[in-house]
Write a structure and sequence with these properties.
By secondary structure, this protein is of the alpha/beta class. It folds into 3 domains: about 200 residues, P-loop containing nucleotide triphosphate hydrolases (Rossmann fold, 3-Layer(aba) Sandwich); about 70 residues, Helicase, Ruva Protein, domain 3, CATH 1.10.8; about 80 residues, Arc Repressor Mutant, subunit A. Helices cover about 50% and strands about 10% of the residues. The protein has 16 helices and 9 strands. Helix 6 links the parallel strand 5 and strand 6. The longest helix has 17 residues. It is globular and about 65 Å long. The two termini are about 40 Å apart. The mean pLDDT is about 95. It binds adenosine-5'-triphosphate and magnesium ion (MG). Magnesium ion (MG) binds next to helix 2. Adenosine-5'-triphosphate binds next to helix 2 and helix 10.
């Protein structure tokens, strides 16, 4: 069977990656010129993919050592230090002598070396027992970084997570370490715009104005069209131009949804027409009905009516205009505003500039489909 060229998780290689040339250059330029950078975008638009893409090319290792840490699953400074420490030290564990040097140099924080059973790559992990040990270990790891001759690009993905840690001064601690470590460019990334804005734009917070902000937008239509058509055609699957337009319109060119729809269509192996695209969309949303039912069970009737109204009307600008409220039977503007805020916190709704849309585009299609 042919490899499906439309991946729906992770990063493989540039071959599977569409465009992002300008963004790749901008991030690389920031790293090489020793600036810190913060990337933000709505969920699943391709931040992690972009980081991995910038880090992928071995050729970059001569300019910087890439370190990637995903802190989504961390809940405290202790967790952070374990994930961060493992990422930094594993990036340096390139051969036996480097591993020996790390184990010896950092003996006080008891690093442990092993081989990752999935990737086959060596890693070095830390087991930290409490808050004080976490703080001490961070000191030691940053001290170790400062002693290296190389420049490091350290990506901390899902950075907004730090505000949920119980320790009060995490931002200040990290900021101080980073400021003292001149051979490190940080790449912060996350999807919770208002949390990141709070961290980086509040004059009274440690990270105020300390990084270059970079909003990751959608991949351009032309670039995605070419990527889709060439990946189908070179694998011997015909795809009609109107079918590509329909894919990009259903998914609003949102990376994950484009990838997913194309992945499924490719999997069928048949010629792709507007009809097969529509059929596939119905198949996908029908498969997901149980998930959507569980979403709905989490919602109040007003929440549900708001989501349905956005789904039916497409991305909406004036959610609380009297026209929109009355034609969708939503009631008072004040309660809709409160409900919308709650739906944004729960990540059902995304606000892009002044435009509201649903985060899950297949859920949006399903709501529209069910409404007839
Ligand atoms: N340029 C690209 N070309 C092709 N596929 C991509 C591209 N960028 C991302 N993807 C794919 O799209 C999906 C979403 O991308 P990714 O996980 O990078 O988004 P994200 O913005 O980090 O999302 P989240 O906010 O949920 O962490 C992934 O399956 C990834 O493989
Ligand atoms: Mg991500």
């Amino acid at each position: 069977m042919k490899n499906n060229p439309f991946i729906i998780s992770g990063y493989i290689s540039p071959e599977y990656f569409c465009d992002r040339e300008k963004e790749t250059d901008a991030v690389t330029d920031a790293i090489r010129n020793r600036r810190h950078i913060t990337m933000f975008s709505p969920r699943r638009l391709g931040k992690t993919g972009l980081i991995k893409h910038v880090f992928y090319a071995g050729k970059n290792r001569k300019y910087f050592i890439p370190v990637y840490a995903d802190i989504l699953a961390t809940g405290s400074l202790k967790d952070f230090t374990e994930v961060f420490g493992r990422s930094v030290l594993s990036a340096l564990a390139v051969n036996q002598s480097a591993i020996k040097k790390i184990l010896k140099g950092l003996a006080s924080i008891r690093p442990k070396a092993g081989i990752d059973p999935v990737s086959g790559e060596p890693y070095i992990s830390l087991a930290i027992s409490g808050e004080q040990e976490a703080a001490d270990s961070l000191d030691i790891i940053f001290g170790f970084l400062r002693k290296q001759n190389e420049h490091f690009a350290i990506a901390i993905d899902e950075f907004q997570q730090v505000i949920s840690y119980p320790e009060r001064n995490v931002e200040a601690v990290l900021r101080t370490h980073i400021q003292q470590t001149s051979n490190v460019s940080m790449l912060f990334s996350g999807s919770r715009r208002h949390i990141l804005t709070g961290i980086f734009f509040s004059p009274d917070r440690p990270f105020y104005n300390s990084t270059q902000m970079m909003e990751i937008g959608k991949i351009g239509n032309e670039a995605y069209k070419n990527f889709i058509s060439s990946n189908f055609e070179k694998n011997g699957i015909k795809i009609e131009d109107p079918a590509i337009d329909l894919i990009l319109s259903i998914t609003a060119t949102h990376t994950f949804y484009v990838q997913y729809l194309c992945n499924r269509l490719f999997g069928e192996g048949n010629k792709v027409t507007t009809e097969t695209v529509n059929q596939m969309l119905i198949k996908i949303i029908t498969e997901n009905e149980a998930v959507y039912a569980s979403y709905i069970s989490m919602l109040t009737p007003l929440h549900f009516r708001i989501l349905r109204a956005i789904a039916i009307n497409g991305p909406v600008r004036y959610l609380t205009s009297s026209d929109f409220l009355s034609s969708n039977n939503l009631g008072a503007a004040s309660s809709v505003s409160v409900a919308v805020k709650s739906l944004m916190d729960k990540e059902f709704i995304n606000l892009d500039g002044e435009i509201y849309s649903l985060n899950d585009l297949f859920f949006s299609s399903w709501l529209k489909f069910r409404a007839g």
